[in-house]
Amino acid sequence: MRSRGVTARVPAKVNLQLSVGPLGADGFHEVTTVFQAISLFDDVTVATAEKGEGVKISITGQTSGGVPADNSNLAVKAAQLMIKNYDLPEDLVIKLKKEIPVAGGMAGGSADAAGVIVGLDSLFELGLSRDVMESVGSKIGSDVPFSICGGVAIGTGRGDQITPALAKGSYNWVLALSGQGLATPSVYQECDRLREGLSIAAPVVSEPLMQALRAGDAKALGKALTNELQPAACSLRPALRLVLDVGVDYGALGGIVSGSGPTVAFLVSDDDHAMDLTVALSSSGVVSSVVRASGPTNGARIIESF
Ligand code: ATP
């Protein structure tokens, strides 16, 4: 008998590189980014419901505050698109258990959309390939395809054209979280404002970064981290500069604003180092909380069916 529901576990991401091209005529920027999936997860359960219920969503977990429980939730949007594309029953229950920070530049909403797509594929035995699921995901948001893919991957276009990258090693991260998120569109607008009058080249993948990943060299990776949205995020939230300074003072291999921020991700050499930096950041008074994670990890995967 087919199961009544399934749970997918989906990782957060950090951008090891984020290069932003000029503002296009369509209002979007072409980007080149290198993603790494890290061990902070949302669990997304999808289950069949009584006829006439429609799509219902409930949200729990450490980071559930401020997440919309209506049709604007990316998980609901993903469910509606899957129902339409694959003629699925219209009555579904979605349960999100959130651990990924909200509006933190770590693709929390995208992770939930990815969980719904992978979950419904499994629940209704659709047999979709990863490529097809990523293409459905790209209609919901630029980071959804990577949340499905996981590991380490290059994203081009709007970050939604994913190519898995050759990478060795496992990396330790210390993440400095802010109490208040930053809206991605405002950070891009600030980036455009700061760049006014400058000529901006098309974005390309960083060769030193790819070399560090191929070699599994954490020290070289720390030096090669780049984020062209970082000046804009720091301009909107000057305290981020102080957070980045704490990382430098405590010998992080590298530190970077993740995506559009405001989470700051520090690469550290080992557990001892991670502990020292965690304590320093926690007592600095400039971050709201600190969490540790490692990467890379898998993309969205089914962990339970019932
Ligand atoms: P990205 O890194 O992809 O730019 P982000 O991690 O900065 O995204 P999200 O956590 O995805 O940001 O949240 C951005 C906004 O999207 C939130 O402020 C919230 O209003 C809305 N949102 C919609 N669906 C979700 C969801 N399932 N989880 C979290 N936020 C959601």
UniProtKB/TrEMBL annotation:
Protein keywords: ATP-binding, Isoprene biosynthesis, Kinase, Nucleotide-binding, Transferase
EC number: 2.7.1.148
GO molecular function, one term: 4-(cytidine 5'-diphospho)-2-C-methyl-D-erythritol kinase activity
Name listed for the protein in its UniProt record: 4-diphosphocytidyl-2-C-methyl-D-erythritol kinase
InterPro entries named among the record's database cross-references: GHMP_kinase_C_dom (IPR013750), GHMP_kinase_C_sf (IPR036554), GHMP_kinase_N_dom (IPR006204), IspE (IPR004424), Ribosomal_Su5_D2-typ_SF (IPR020568), Ribsml_uS5_D2-typ_fold_subgr (IPR014721)
Residues covered by the GHMP kinase C-terminal domain: 209-281
Record-listed ATP binding positions: 101-111
Active site per UniProt: 13, 143
Species annotation: Candidatus Nanopelagicus limnae
